[in-house]
Design a protein that fits this description.
37% of the residues lie in helices and 15% in strands. It is an alpha/beta fold. The strands form 2 sheets. It has a 7-stranded mixed β-sheet with strand order 1-7-6-5-4-2-3, sandwiched between helices. α2 packs parallel to α9. The termini are far apart.
Length: 381
């Protein structure tokens, strides 16, 4: 039986795990490092928690069901997932990627992957003709964020998938900003979907996690071998926290989006605000593509204010909204990308993308929206 995504958030595909024989409504935390064998040469299916743990396995089944993937693998953080993903490639491989990305992704590309001989090329992946033009004989993958962090650029997933398939390339998508609730890249041809589970999936700013959702068995086997070898799997208690968080994903995403739309509209009327970047605004250049490939717009907003002084003033004066890194939780957070998420990106590159000293990024939570607007209003006075 096929379930609606709201139901999948609670039960996944409702496939009962054989270890869950107590009737516990909340899936148990199997806080054990190792498992005994019932006999010589036999196994319960669990040997050592680095390889697999029942709590992590349950979480992975739920996340795979949300993304309609063949498998999902849970890691200790989003960057651990990203690191495992890049282990699919060899020295000399060329990867095309969006030119606006989370700063941590840029850092691992520039300081780890390039050092290991992987060629990374940043381009505007919304420009399909440019993507086709930049593919080389050694190109192995196209990696995109959509929407991007922090400038909210949108890439047409289906069109990139067609390009990738025609050149036998892997198509990799970071889907953190919209979550599986609003966007499912595998449905449009993605081979691997990455999530920072710390964000919307967890939803409560209380634990770190990362996921790779794989579209086929071959990729699943390769990633699980990497997980087993490097030991970067998610711990049982953190897996349980993610299971608990995902149960409310649907209602959180709807509430956060509703707030974000109201705040984006309000920001657009403010004298000290110069530009608002939110994919749910009809004026956004990626709005029509978003309508085609997403069921919602999420709750991430970036905006330029008139001066650096206004930006600093706002960060210092907000009282309800918290000045902190991260995103996707029930609490609204505001971030200064040039000093936080993108501090390691060279200034010239940041400036060229619009990530300057007047840009702020807002992750909208589930608070009463008029309270959030009032907080922003007093901070802008």
């Amino acid at each position: 039986m096929a379930y609606h995504i709201n139901t999948k958030c609670i039960y996944g595909n409702n496939v009962k795990n054989p270890v869950d024989n107590t009737g516990a409504v909340s899936f148990p935390i199997y806080q054990t490092a190792t498992f005994s064998h019932p006999d010589v040469g036999s196994s319960t299916g669990y040997d050592y928690s680095r390889l697999q743990n029942p709590t992590r396995e349950q979480l992975e089944k739920v996340v795979a069901s949300l993304e309609n993937g063949y498998d999902a693998v849970a890691f200790s953080s989003g960057m651990a997932a990203m690191n495992a993903l890049m282990e699919l490639f060899q020295p000399g491989d060329h990867i095309l990627t969006s030119n606006d990305l989370y700063g941590g992704t840029i850092r691992i590309f520039n300081h780890i992957n390039k050092k290991n001989g992987i060629e990374i090329e940043y381009i505007d992946t919304s420009d399909l003709s440019l993507v086709k033009k930049q593919i080389k004989d050694n190109t192995k993958a196209i990696f995109v964020e959509s929407p991007t962090n922090p400038m909210m650029n949108v890439t047409d997933l289906q069109e990139i998938a067609i390009i990738a398939q025609s050149h036998q390339l892997l198509f990799l998508v970071d889907n953190t900003f919209l979550s599986p609730y609003f966007q499912n890249p595998i449905a449009f041809g993605a081979d691997v979907v990455l999530h920072s589970g710390t964000k919307f999936l967890g939803g409560h700013n209380d634990t770190l996690a990362g996921f790779l959702v794989l579209a086929n068995e071959t990729l699943s086997e390769r990633i699980r071998f990497i997980l087993k070898t490097t030991g970067s799997g998610l711990a049982p208690f953190d897996s349980w926290l993610l299971l608990r968080g995902i149960k409310t994903l649907a209602i959180r995403m709807e509430a956060q989006q509703k707030n974000a739309i109201a705040i984006a509209d309000w920001l657009g009327t403010q004298e000290k605000v110069r530009n608002v970047y939110y994919v749910g605004l009809p004026s956004h250049p990626g709005y029509e593509v978003s309508l085609k490939q997403s069921s919602g717009f999420g709750s991430m907003i970036s905006f330029h204010v008139n001066t650096p002084e206004t930006a600093v003033q706002l960060l210092r004066k907000v009282r309800l909204i918290q000045y902190a890194e991260s995103l996707g939780g029930v609490e609204s957070l505001i971030t200064y990308p040039m000093l936080q998420t993108h501090a390691d990106v060279p200034e010239e590159e940041r400036e060229a993308k619009g990530i300057n000293n007047t840009l702020l990024r807002l992750s909208v939570g589930i608070e009463y929206v008029e309270d959030l607007i009032a907080d922003l209003a007093q901070a802008l006075e």
